[in-house]
Amino acid sequence: MADRTITLEVFRYQPNGGSGTAKERFQRYDVPYHEHWVVLDALNWIKDELDGTLTYRWSCRMGVCGSCGMMVNGEPKLTCAAFLKDYFPQSIKIEPLSYFPVERDLLIDIEGFLAKLKSIKPWIIRQQEKSLDEGEYLQSPNELASFKQYSMCINCLLCYAACPVVGAEEDFIGPAAMALAQRYNLDSRDEGEDLRSEALGAEEGAWGCTFVGECTEVCPKNVDPGGAIQRAKVENTKAFYKRLLMPWGNR
Amino acid sequence: MKKSNEALWWSLFSAGGVMSALFLPVFVVITGLVVPSMAARNGSRVTHEHFVAIVSWWPVRLALFGIIFLTAFHAAHRIRHVLMDLGWRHHGLPLIVLCYGGAIACTGAAGWILGTF
Amino acid sequence: MRAKRFQTPMPSTWFLQRAGYRRFMAREATAIAFAPFLVYLLVWIHRLSQGPEAFAALIEVTRNPVSVVLHSLLFGAVLYHSFTWFNLTPKIMPMYVAEEKVPDFWAAIFMGYLPWVVVTAVVLWGVLR
Questions:
Q1: Mean of the per-residue pLDDT values of chain A
Q2: What is the ipTM for the molecules in this complex?
């Protein structure tokens, strides 16, 4: 049984303003301190024991589902992987992920992200599907290795909250979606690079990125979206010069 | 989605980034350390004549032109984007004219100075 | 269209918020030092072409302490650019040998630091020989 407590300052927000309360405010909760607790455990304790109206998204509590991302002391974090002991005895400030519209409290609206994700067509595209009796699409370990890192993304959106371009430019496709575009572009089974290049090569795509690189720093899965976007720039540039020097080519 | 000409600017930026990363440190050492400390000394090998002989050789002038031209576009592109990130995002065209215009002016000056050397 | 909802605003001083942002700004700001250096380099070459007197006058200027300070600042900016550029190169253009990815550390040495040492040595040799 814990006799020590830790204070959480939690961002509260209701779009309609609630019943006469300020629209955005911080609420302090004292939570029992356990060394093995993560911030998500503390939030669950608040919801169970103190305040059932606190709203946030979570599911797997083991760094796989990517739904519990929040700003923890201003740092985008998976709250299931942010241990209280790294902050104790100081209080911890919990806010929704930056630059997303907030539905309520810590719950962000990800519709915009999902539309961006769809714009880069994150699936394997074939010009001509093989028939079933031709067998599966084989891939060598090296071919797998060339994109595997980018396939580890769990869409937790920490990278968006760390990106100043996302903050400044609403339409910027953003790190995770473009890393996934590269994940498919680099897949030996995929033939959809040209179809993705319209979005990826637009100003809202790779060219909006100034390679701040913090997306890569905050990524809990070591996806390196920053590197992926720069590689997309290289490919887009190659295509640009190819068109310039060989306008009779079919790209 | 806005179609982008960034591939052109970015390729110049990248080439200039490589050139400046490779050459500028030693250039600064020459203009800031080697020349002030050696060239004024009597009997120094690093004289006016010595530098004229180096720069007169056409491959050196060609290399200098390439380095200055690409570094100018590198700097122009970076300054443009840094200003955009600092909040000038919606003044795109004036920034393009100002930054790349400066780089073009610098390239022109380099062409004239090195071409008539 | 839904009513406007709360969204964490990005302050105009966003680049001070994180150490990574500050490093990024320092990296990008090196370009601001490049612009006057290019002008100076062109003046330098121009003075050289104008004859021994003009060049000697320029050397006198570069012996001034102000010039030494400016050159030192410039050297810092230029080195910071070189190091950050070489370190980021493998992220942008991964290096492969026989289909195996070369670790970033070695890729930065082969694609950045090694050519840099060679270039610096050749230029210094050309000037000092």
A1: 93
A2: 0.91
